[in-house]
Design goal:
The chain is mainly alpha-helical. Helix content is 72%, strand content 5%. The protein folds into two domains: 325 residues, no CATH class; 79 residues, Metalloproteases ("zincins"), catalytic domain (Zincin-like, 2-Layer Sandwich). Bound molecules: zinc ion.
């Protein structure tokens, strides 16, 4: 088996698939806007959105090409093995060398396209609030997180594989699942690192949000406003916390642009996710995903020839991560992603129904419209892309479903 050729072909196929999706996205900007969302953009804004969408697409196409070219050059030159060769032949030192090098390469590529995205395109259309300093700090933080996570992950894989050989798959999946749970547990703390949170002031909004959560037996630990406007003008809301104790986080942009009822409607939607246990369900699906990943990782680390084909003397657990990310996982992800986003769209409709049940149907429609306007969303995305990768249904379909639910439930 010519492993080298196989990997290079897979990397190219995966990039080709991504390019195809970007091209479909590019063309879909010309789709006619459905009637029920025609009022979102006026003619001038719509023209601006089209330019914005085209520039974003072009950048994505360039970013995909750069990432493909860099990956190919590094693989063709056996660059990872050359970097590893500079360090002592200890498996952990070797994996750290390769992963730090990889994280550095990815951060540099990501920073280049991220710079154009944030500081040029988003800036031009008035969404960006990041300063160069925030941007650089974000890149450094991204690099540290990526390097650290991949090193921890692959060190665990290396230790288990060394100790248990082939028997390690299930244990590896379990350990990784434990880590993802831990990260989702720590996420509220991690996301705090770059942002400021202030308690929401007393008033109608605070009372209504509290009433909404407590009417379903939740306890509100805190309602906080995040200073997202430091980075972007786009808006969002979410709630965190395990068990009955919840912390609500609202972007300050949301409060600036929406009425109390609209924010409550967005929240009633989030509550719908909570009541239907969508997050734990998604974690179960993640576990399935991780099992697939563990099997692939096992396939990659039990085949030294895969590593030797790229200049290593034997298995390098850092390089295994790259093989996984750019070939093995990349190959199955379109399929698992499609299944998971199909479920996610179903859960979105169900959460919208919850908002209608709470009496916030009409406010949800106007809130979603404002969110779409604030986020400069695509109003008529390609049906193919929706099926392949949209985690949320297109706005016009959501509104149609909410209107139907209002008639049924009210
Ligand atoms: Zn949702």
């Amino acid at each position: 088996m010519d492993w080298r050729l196989l990997i290079l072909v897979i990397v190219t196929l995966v990039s080709g698939y991504q390019l195809l999706l970007h091209a479909v996205q590019y063309r879909s900007a010309n789709n006619p806007t459905p009637d029920n969302v025609k009022d979102i953009y006026d003619a001038e804004t719509y023209a601006r959105w089209k330019n914005y969408s085209a520039e974003k697409c072009r950048l994505q196409i360039i970013a995909t090409l750069i990432s493909w070219a860099v990956t190919m050059v590094l693989l063709l030159c056996n660059a990872h093995a050359a970097v590893a060769g500079l360090f002592p032949q200890n498996i952990y030192v070797q994996l750290i060398a390769v992963l730090v090098f990889q994280a550095l390469v990815e951060t540099l590529c990501g920073a280049a396209t991220g710079y154009v995205d944030t500081m040029i395109i988003e800036q031009k259309y008035g969404f960006n609030r990041s300063t160069i300093k925030t941007f650089v700090m974000d890149q450094i933080r991204g690099f540290l997180i990526e390097a650290l996570l991949s090193i921890v992950l692959m060190s665990i894989l290396a230790a288990l594989h060394q100790a248990m050989g082939d028997g390690m798959i299930l244990l590896f999946a379990a350990v990784v699942f434990g880590i993802t749970l831990l990260i989702s547990f720590l996420y509220p703390i991690i996301s705090r690192m770059g942002n400021k949170f202030t308690p929401l002031e007393e008033g109608e909004l605070r009372d209504k949000l509290t009433a909404l959560l407590t009417s379903h037996g939740y306890k509100v630990k805190a309602i906080e406003v995040m200073d997202a406007s430091r980075r972007t003008t786009k808006s969002n809301a979410y709630f965190t916390g395990f068990g009955a104790m919840k912390t609500i986080v609202l972007y300050d942009n949301l409060i600036a642009s929406m009425t109390a009822d609209e924010i409550c409607a967005i929240f009633a939607h989030e509550l719908g996710h909570g009541l239907h246990k969508d997050v734990p369900k998604q974690q179960v699906m993640n576990l399935g995903n991780l099992l697939i990943m563990a099997v692939l990782a096992w396939l990659v680390v039990r085949e030294p020839a895969l590593h030797q084909a790229f200049g290593f003397a034997g298995v390098n657990y850092g390089f295994a991560f790259i093989l996984l990310g750019s070939a093995a996982l990349a190959l199955v992800q379109p399929l698992t992603g499609m299944l998971m986003s199909a479920y996610s769209r179903f859960a979105e409709y169900r959460a919208d129904r919850q908002a209608v049940k709470e009496g916030y149907g009409p406010a949800l429609i106007s809130g979603l419209k404002k969110l779409s306007r604030d986020n400069f969303s695509h109003l008529a995305p390609s049906k193919l892309l929706v099926v392949l990768e949209y985690s949320h249904p297109p706005l016009s379909q959501r509104i149609a479903a909410v209107e139907k639910a209002i008639k049924e439930l009210m």
